[in-house]
Amino acid sequence: MLAVVAVAWLAWQQVQVDAEVGAPKGPDRRVASARGLANDAHALTSVARETLAERPIDGGAFRMLGLAAALQSNPDRAGELYRIAARLDPRDDIAQAMLIDASFEQGAVGEGVTHVDALLRIAPHMRESLLASLVPYVANPQLLDALVKALAADPPWRGSLAPVLRHADATQTETLLAALTQAVPLTAPELAARVEALTALGEPGHAREIWLQSLPEADRALDGLLFDAGFEGIDKTDGFGWRWNEEPGVTIAFDAIDPAQGQQSLQVDFSGRAVRFVGPRQRLVLAPGSYEISSAVDDRTGSPRRFAWFVQCNSGPALIELDLPANSDGHWKTVRADFDVPPDCQGQQLTLRHTGRSMAERQISGVLRVDDVQLRKLPNRVTLPNPSHAE
User: Fold this and answer.
1) How many C-beta neighbours within 10 Å does residue 212 have?
2) pLDDT tens digits, residue range 99-138?
3) 3-state DSSP helix/strand/coil percent for the chain, to nearest 5?
């Protein structure tokens, strides 16, 4: 049986006054005042009967009778009364919350998720907390199926799922999103959450494949060991494309004037401020082996310290630092170097950094352009025996 999701008391405590309507009056005031009687079955019954005598179709009164029945250990009767309350007032968030608990306690998971859907539609303030309480149980096939069906209908609360999954267990996130993608395409935030989950689970190759298939065909044509090596495609992307942070004193943009190859290059403008520059970066999924990295550069900053491309394992030391030469003649220069990826390096990152250490060295002005950043797989290196040890 699915563990009970404790939402009823949370809903009871978080009911808010509608500013357009104002504080409750008449029977509504009586029902609202009963919130302090949540543990007194007799008092709840008394208030409910008084209210029904004045307004026989008051949903809140039936909900109070349901609460009283639950306190008297009569869950079946409580469930019937909650259903009446929800039918009379579908926007009664407490009744919906009680029906979630009652349905899950009885093993009626599909019905429970129906009330989850209703509650999340009428109580936006509960969306992330309630979804976070459900995600740990997605291994339950009934809950998973019901949640996927609800999400596939694109409810107004679907946008709250991805922020929750960003902080959820990676296995649970992948379980839910793998099932959801079989029903409907993932939203961009959901796809990003799935990529993060798969990467955390040690499956960066699978994560990259899923991300790549989500792109338009024209953008998929830019793929290689490095995605969009010539900066020809879309601006900053999530997943396995180029990414960079906005930083005061630094402007990064594509430039179509005189690229080293293709239609454009990446241009970085420095305003003269002292910055700890960490520029464009991209996740890599390189198999163990030998590689060559190369890059075209046009460095007109005059900085005393070099810019460099770094390839680093996700958890481990840097594999290569490719220093980029300063420009002295106004032309593109290309540099290259070889490096090895060890077997225990599951996933890497390529990052452009400035190697300045002191405040004075990090004060940069001028323009840096980079283009045609390439990764090439080399034949496996063969270590020849030392002739001096030959028999």
Assistant:
1) 16
2) 898 889 888 999 999 999 999 999 999 999 999 999 999 9
3) 40, 20, 40
